[in-house]
Inverse folding.
């Protein structure tokens, strides 16, 4: 079983749609959780951290359910510029908070 | 602005060659990482370093070695390149949690 599992997609949605991505992780000792974004042929970049209480950054909302070991990302009012691959990331591999485990990513295409 | 640079964007090498991939960060971070990224497999950790002259194996260290002689520089070495090492190689530097990636080196071994 992969440590971090994501639906690879692709998700093809029209502009203005709301889309949700889910992710599960296997290491119950993981302490920190993130969503990274990777544009085509570019490096991954941090999109947002994920907190147990849930957090929002503009059109993006991230949620964490520790009991179910489940992370989600909701994007409202999708823009063409949101087209990218979204990587679910957890810390705590090898018992170290400094090491991150990356999911394989969910590909999103927002259509005009 | 945080910056991680990698020596080459594209590289083509022959089987059996020794290959050096260089990474430099300007963030003064202790931690540096080398990953490879392949379709369907995501990012896989090859090696990482928490300090100068320190190195730790990641998930897939076989066929690779690393060198960290200065804090800002972390090198990945393919001792004898093979075709299954054709991949995108990403270097990252980071603090406790967030990692900043370089633009990547797409290596093709023929």
């Amino acid at each position: 079983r992969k440590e971090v599992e994501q639906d690879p997609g692709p998700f093809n949605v029209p502009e203005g749609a709301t889309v949700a991505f889910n992710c599960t992780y296997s290491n119950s000792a993981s302490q920190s959780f993130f969503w990274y974004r990777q544009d085509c042929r570019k490096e991954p970049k941090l999109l947002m951290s994920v907190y147990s209480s849930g957090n929002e950054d503009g059109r993006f909302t991230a949620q964490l359910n520790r009991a179910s070991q489940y992370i989600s990302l909701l994007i409202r009012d999708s823009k063409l510029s949101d087209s990218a691959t979204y990587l679910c990331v957890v810390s705590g591999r090898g018992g170290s908070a400094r090491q991150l485990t990356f999911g394989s990513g969910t590909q999103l295409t927002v259509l005009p | 602005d945080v910056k991680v640079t990698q020596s080459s964007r594209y590289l083509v090498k022959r089987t059996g060659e020794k290959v050096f991939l260089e990474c430099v960060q300007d963030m003064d971070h202790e931690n540096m990482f080398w990953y490879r990224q392949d379709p369907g497999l995501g990012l896989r950790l090859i090696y990482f370093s928490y300090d100068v002259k320190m190195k730790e194996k990641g998930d897939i260290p076989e066929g690779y070695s690393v060198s960290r002689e200065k804090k800002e520089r972390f090198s990945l070495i393919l001792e004898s390149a093979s075709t299954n090492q054709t991949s995108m190689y990403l270097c990252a530097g980071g603090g406790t949690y967030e990692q900043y990636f370089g633009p990547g080196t797409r290596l093709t071994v023929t």
Q: What stands out?
A: Chain A has no helices and eleven strands. Chain A touches chain B at residues 8, 32, 34, 42-46, 49, 87, 91, 93, 97-100, 102-105 (CB under 8 Å). Chain A has a mean pLDDT of 91.
